Prior knowledge:
Mean pLDDT: 92
Radius of gyration: 38 Å
Strand content: 35-45%
Shape: rod-shaped
Low-confidence stretches: none
CATH superfamily of the largest domain: Flagellar hook protein FlgE
Helix content: 10-25%
CATH architecture of the largest domain: Sandwich
Number of domains: 3
Largest sheet: 7 strands, antiparallel
Structural class: alpha+beta
Number of strands: 36
Amino acid sequence: MGSFGSMLTAVAGLRAQSFAMQNISGNIANSSTPGFKRVDTGFADLIPEQPLSRQVAGSVSSFSRATNTLSGEFLPTNLDTNIAINGDGFFAVGQRPVQTSSIVRPSPELYTRRGDFELDRLGYLVNGAGYALRGTMLDRVTGLPQPSANGGFIQISQELLGRLDPSPTSEVTYNVTLPNTAGTTDSAANAAWGDQINPTAQDASGDIPTANNTAFLRSSLGGGSVTVYNSVGAIESMNLRWAKVGANTWDLFYESNTGGDAWRRIGGPGAFSFDATGAPTAPVGNTLSVGGVVQINGVDYQDMTFDFGDSLAQLTGTTVQPSFLDQNGYGVGRYDGVSISEDGIVSISYTNGQVTPVAEVDVVGFYAPNALRRVDGGAFEATRESGDPSVAFARGTVMAGGIESSNTDISEEFAKMIVTQQAYTANTRVISTAQEMIRDVLNVVR
């Protein structure tokens, strides 16, 4: 029986080495496939039950050994929708929903590391294998998640890819410190009113008529400029100036050039006051409303609130020191592109500089990722052995602008191929030798 047994064992060896060669060939063929995880081959010996003195080496069987936890290199592509995972985790994907009449056929959830996603004509983010990226849509206004939207897929609607309506300026953030002595042109010339505003510059309402513009500029200090927008997207620069109106007391003006007024006062007279230490005593809460419609160069803008935060103070010096000046409005914008951040937020950027978050990418992990079942296109299915997907096991961050390469090492695969070929050839020699031994036995019988 030894000759027959050795022949059967060699046949099992041929089968095992053929299985290994099949995996090697698949690894080499997919060495350039994004996100591909190579399949290694393991071997196990099969020992028949025999007395201790009659034990044999036994036969062999082969099995696949997954490498789902081994990452490939990050390859930059400079495409904002191409993403990779730095660390553990998988992108949740699936086939795009197919709708027939009023019925939507759902797609099973799959998982992949292939991140060469691009927008298709329906607004889905689809990778090179045809799988659409799953995620949670975000409300465009509130930013709150909408888990049931689009069947769990990320879809950028045509509305988001169009025009972004303007948002009028309603709040100006202004961080500024004022001097205890106003170093104006008049104060340098030893004017009778010192470092305070020229008393002839203001009219009865406290504004600055166009005829008194020069007198006002000589007795006030520049406070910076901020761009503001109205409800139809009109844009203007809002120039600001400060004028000292009394001991530790100031007024703030904006340049209007409307209705005969060169500058208009913001708030009432002496709206800004400080104590002996330079701490503000007014306005209360460090916020102040303009107190009506803002008009600049004949164009109407809505009322605006100035927020000075904790910066407002009167310090030693002679000049106004604005450290931050910004506002919350913007003009009309057009779609400019889609980008994905490190925390998986999908955002739409517009030509007006606005960035609107619209979705969040689903990145999940598994307790036993190597127990996932492989399917076409570099995707995987969850199994009982792998466990259910969970964000708790996804300990990676999203990297945008590139993809993960295959984790196949060509030189390593060629080395394994040589060893496999030699083992296969050796098994064929065993079969040939066993066949000769059996022939010799048969010849003895004759």
